[in-house]
Amino acid sequence: EKLSVRIFSLLFRSPLTLLVMILRWFPAFRFERETHNTQTPATIRQWIIQNVVGINKGPYWPVHYTSRVTGWQNVVCGVETSPGLMGGCYIQGIGKIVIGDYTQIASNVGIISANHSVIDNRRHVSESVVIGEYCWLGMNVVVLPGVHLGDFTVVGAGAVVTKSFPEGYCVIAGNPAKVIRRLDPEECVRHRSEFEYHGFIPRAEFDNFRRRHLSTA
Prior knowledge:
CATH superfamily of the domain at 64-213: Hexapeptide repeat proteins
Largest sheet: 5 strands, parallel
Strand order of the largest sheet: 1-3-6-11-14
Structural class: alpha/beta
CATH class of the domain at 64-213: Mainly Beta
CATH topology of the domain at 64-213: UDP N-Acetylglucosamine Acyltransferase, domain 1
CATH architecture of the domain at 64-213: 3 Solenoid
């Protein structure tokens, strides 16, 4: 009896908790159960914050309320990749941004796909940014327009990436970033999750979503 009273009391104090408990069993919201143990969990609470409350409304992946995403239609997120999930990030999608599967992005990271013209600061010049699979961008990293990072590129905290490292399999750091270590491709692990999601969207449904909603289709 005491347990029942405690449960009722909890639900009465927090209607959102009750709503989440109900919604998580609907097929449209199965992402919470299936991404629970992944590197980028997509929760119903976060979906409500973005799509009902309207904070960071638009992006199809979870974004922290202190992060900012512009031009989400130009951003292609791979499986288990959610730029801005950690707080304080700025994802600027004026130009095209493509981020590969299982790439992780820390707090306060900036990914910039356009900059002001040096001769006419009224004009933005955009260049695509491509980040490969299984990369890791540490805290306070800035990736500038036109950069291409290959698979398994690790970017050290505070680095400013001004040029491309398309070969991947390396650790880069500094301002401007440079290679400080090479990685052995034979030792790099290409793991996969049981359930694969592009943010809130199951992998099997993403190609159709991309054709309908993204300008990078």
